[in-house]
Amino acid sequence: MDNKKDIRLMKGNEAIAEAAIRCGVDGYFGYPITPQSEVMETLMLLKPWETTGMVVLQAESEIASINMVYGGAGCGKKVMTSSSSPGISLMQEGLTYLAGAELPCVVVNVVRGGPGLGTIQPAQSDYFQSVKGGGHGDYKLIVLAPASVQEMADFVELAFDLAFKYRNPALILSDGMIGQMMEKVELKPYRKRWTNEEIKQMHPWATMGKPAERERNIITSVELDPNAFERFNHKLQDKYRKMQEEEVRCEQFNCEDAEYLLVAYGSSARICQKAMELARAKGIKVGLLRPITLFPFPTREIQALLGHVKGILSVELSEGQMVEDVRLTVEGKVKVEHFGRVGGVVHSPEEVVEALERKIIGG
Amino acid sequence: MEVSIKDIIKPENLVYQKSSLLTEKPMHYCPGCTHGVVNRLIAEVIEELGLQQETIGVTPVGCSVLLYNYIDIDWQEAAHGRAPALGTAIKRLLPEKYVFTYQGDGDLAAIGTAETIHACNRGENILMVFINNGIYGMTGGQMAPTTLEGMAASTCPFGRDPERDGNPLSMTEIVATLPGTRYVTRQAAHTAGAVRKLKKALIKGFNNQKENKGTSFIEVVSTCNSGWKMTPVQANEWMVENMFPFYPLGDIKDK
Amino acid sequence: MAKMKGAIVVDMVSCKGCSLCVEACPTQVIGLADEVNAKGYNYAYMVNPEACTGCSNCAMVCPDSCITVYRMRVAEPA
Questions:
Q1: CB contact B65 to A (< 8 Å)
Q2: What's the mean per-residue pLDDT of chain A?
Q3: B27-254, which class in CATH?
């Protein structure tokens, strides 16, 4: 049967690779780093250059791989890379150039604990770097936070759609837990890669060689005229405001009657789902709001709950990063605290409930 | 009968004119800068080979950062040192196109050393043009990886001291040892003869891409008369006397 | 016997007066003008046009593509 569902058991990192081939990605450029090396390993095993024609290349560094992404993106191709925290730090230069040149691409960060070489265990301590720009200059990445292997697969295509819609890099902010764990995943059918002719039609800015009938295309982020560069910066900000208006995605559980709210993304959101159940069993009216887009942040969605929510706990595998955005959202109207284990330690649902009682309800 | 200038200046007597691929934009380079000559030659070569629609150029960070203003082809501007990474991806994703990178010594031989060596070692089927004038021109004349021993720059005002500053780097000899490079040559542009030879090398660098046999790498030993604090003519003389003994001209590899 | 006669046209607006063409000319045709152009450069011109053979060496070394070269064969009086 043609329409038979393709359901597999696989790791989050493997799902990224499968989804990339299936949604017609043209090129993957990467460099090995734990805990995400399975992305490129899976691609190399699947040999997509023999089927879809996708290019897969192991670069000499993350610096090279993000700049290969820049080169490919400048040609209007669907290109991506993946790495983990220290490697993503190396890519910040490339990311600000990509944002400055308005190039679409997808970057996957399977986060591990930092700072420094840190640990290979999962963490969510790259939130600031992801949602505040990361490199120099006023820019934002579109940031998607998957909480399951299924979302690892689905968000590859979504990230490309958003990246091309806004001509802006999109980041899939995962972590070592989602990357390494195995779950059931339904894979989408194969989509054809864009032909060069289609790219020329859809992305007239792409450098595909200059025909007589158009001006030359220049992919660049240099502008030495201050007034022109101010206008360009304003244009970027307009784009980010449009994202904030139109692209916020989040999931809410038991928020309708919640007196207390947990805000958590990715693997922390999974733990908080259980914590919410434990708290509800104790008679505490707890809801969970899971941001799916971290930039744009679900500001309006959180604000809409402030009529009945008396306190918010931001639960992250960090020393408290997203909590700052929750506080900015809430503007002091209710108490907002942070809870999270770090260094590769993962909090338990019981610890989350205990923290909620101690820091929010009793505090 | 004497021939007047008016008789000579007629379309049928035209033997040299500015390439139609060069834009009307005046080049921002200092008077006498080698970049202008090499930019012009690249335009001429692309025009003569009929590759305007087939070529994608990658510009660096440095004096030639705005090179895309001068030649009427599609361009990508790379971050400092990363041009070979861009070139790699462009060529792999558009293998039928002609791809070249254009970089100075700081870009190619300091901050971008890894990208340079690995693109050459993978044998990327691109042309890499390397302008070596032994100095950082754009930022105001600082020491480059290729600054000669004893040569003054604003960050080694009393001359490069190998004990403190390390030694000048011969990147072209290094890439010639790599199996991925196919054609490695060192040229100059200080005389009409040198310019004609350089143009032949550039033509080869483009034509080599038809055969996919590895990277073509062309160093152009160049002057930076502003940075060297000389007139253009003195700078050429100084280059011949001081740069050429350390960076000798000629083909290093051609297979 | 025939000999080659040449002439150059210098784009004096874009010339930066670097004098590389002056050095490159084998027959000392080119000099720099006493006047300056709008950019303030003493632009190149033919000081000694009679000597030009149209060899194009000046155009080869010109960094600003300012020089157009013409050349024709002229019969020499016997």
A1: yes
A2: 97
A3: alpha beta
